[in-house]
Amino acid sequence: MTQRLEIRNLAVAYGRTAVVHGIDLHVQAGEMVALLGANGAGKTSILRAISHQQVTATGTLRFEGQDIIDMPAPAIASLGIAHVPEGRGTFGDLTVLENLRVGAIHRRDKDGIEQDIARMQTLFPKLSSRAKQAAGTLSGGEQQMLAIARALMMRPKMLLLDEPSFGIAPRVTQEIYELLHQLRESEHLTALIVEQNAQVALNLANRAYVLESGRITAQGTAAELREDDAVRRSYLGH
Q1: Residue 17 falls within a domain, yes or no?
Q2: On the chain, which terminus has fewer CB atoms closer than 10 Å, C or N?
Q3: Domain range spanning residue 19?
Q4: 147 lies in a domain?
Q5: Is residue 120 a contact partner of residue 88, using CB atoms and an 8 Å limit?
Q6: Which is it for strands 3-14 and 56-63: parallel, antiparallel or unpaired?
Q7: Helix pair angle (140-152, 96-103), 10° resolution
């Protein structure tokens, strides 16, 4: 399996405030990896370091063997890294269809774009029926679906998902995670997912890392972490 993302001794800070302290992790092509931990553990900061947004990062950060730690955000996105931030980040005044087209703004294959729009509407049927509706009028769950669909319009090599279950109903969370599982199995989608809902994340992820105060305290396959006593007590409620 090809290594897609390699992180070595990564430290992340906001100004003078250090939030991640020398972590190592990797993501293989076709793999879904979860970052678990409480609020403030440093999970979101790792995603922001990868996509070069609002943080200062040092260490080694390679994507498909290429050093990206000092690369600007647009260049990182052009490599095939799509970031879906916490809070969804859809364009509320634009329609659902217009949001999807924004995801493909750097593509030039018009036929391929139209095919992918049709594909997104098949993957997310709720978006199909709301194609001409302003994104800001959608429910929280529908906006999360739109944010993921817009990112997929990039045809990314890796998806960064920040708290996809935050603030949405359990039923919709299940729909989103079932879709991500489908994409992993059928299209070998690679993803690094930040998630507080450890049970949901471990049902999807191949592997996971647990962060506490900016340091990795546990890692392993999803099955291994489900059997880890400390993880079970702190994050799985038993």
Answers
A1: yes
A2: C
A3: 3-92+154-236
A4: no
A5: no
A6: antiparallel
A7: 30
Measured distance CA(7)–CA(158) in Å, rounded: 14
Closest by CA position to 79, among listed 89, 90, 88, 67: 67
CA–CA gap between residue 199 and residue 48 (Å, rounded): 24
- Give every CB contact of residue 160 below 8 A, 6+ residues apart in sequence: 47, 50, 51, 81, 82, 83, 84, 191, 192
pTM above 0.90, yes or no: yes
Report the C-alpha gap between 192 and 27 in whole angstroms. Answer: 7
- Asked whether 28 and 189 are in contact (CB, 8 A), the reply is no
Q: How far is CA 209 from the centre of its chain?
A: 14
H or E stretch including 4? strand 3-14
The verdict on residue 197 lying in a domain is yes
Q: What does the pLDDT look like over 134-171, one tens digit per residue?
A: 999 999 999 999 999 999 999 999 999 999 998 889 99
Name the residue among 109, 197, 185 with its Cα closest to residue 161.
Answer: 197
Angle between helices 110-123 and 96-103 (to 10 degrees): 130
Residue 218 within any structural domain of the chain: yes
CATH of the domain at 59: 3.40.50.300
- Tens digits of residue pLDDT in 103-139: 999 889 999 999 999 999 999 999 999 999 999 999 9
Instruction: Report the C-alpha gap between 186 and 184 in whole angstroms.
Output: 6
Q: At 75, which amino acid appears?
A: A
